[in-house]
Amino acid sequence: MKKAFTLIELLLAITLLIGLMAAVVMTMNGVLDREKYNQSKEQLKNYLNYTKYKSVNDQTNATITVNIENNSLSSPFDSEIEWLKDFTNDITILEGSNTNISFNFDGSIDNDLYLNVMSKDGAYSNRLHLSPIGIVKYQDLNTNSVVTSEEQ
Question: For residue 69, what is the enclosing H or E element?
Fold first, then answer.
């Protein structure tokens, strides 16, 4: 007498495998979206730091203009760092403390500034705080946790 799986057992096993695969794919999409958002936050930080360092190097004042309606930033050095501005594809700028971020020729800024940003799907949001002494703090607006990242 041969023992074999019944059709119902095979269908049940296949259904369970499909369900597990769907759960894994959905989890991976969430992880990938979060990572894309984190990379965009780092690009935003790099954009601010590049403008600051370029201002010091050229011994000139430089202003980044924040345009919330167009979800864009612009600086006098954009032609040199166009590749760095891709972060606006993955994040939305919700609001800022000022529409201009002005770096003095010594790299300082006059006031504490912040930008509230959110992932395109609205799942993640942060406040980027830029202090006059060059410390960037990301505050998670969902949990109120603060992550400090000092300039290199």
Answer: none
Residue 29: what are its φ and ψ, rounded to 5°? -60, -40
CA–CA–CA angle 23, 24, 29 (5° rounding)? 100
Range in 47-61, 81-95, 96-110 with the lowest mean pLDDT: 81-95
Task: Please state whether the predicted TM-score (pTM) of the whole model is above 0.85.
Answer: no
Question: Residues 78, 38, 108, 102: is their CA dihedral positive or negative?
Answer: positive
Tell me the per-residue pLDDT of 88-106, one tens digit each, with 9 for 90 and over. Answer: 788 888 888 888 888 888 8
Phi-psi domain of 59 (left: phi exceeds 0; alpha: psi -120 through 50; beta: other): left
Beta strands in the chain (DSSP E): 62-67, 72-74, 91-96, 100-103, 113-119, 125-130, 135-140, 146-150
Q: Are strands 62-67 and 72-74 parallel, antiparallel or unpaired?
A: antiparallel
Backbone angles phi, psi at 114, to 5 degrees: -145, 155
Flag whether pLDDT at 66 surpasses 80: yes
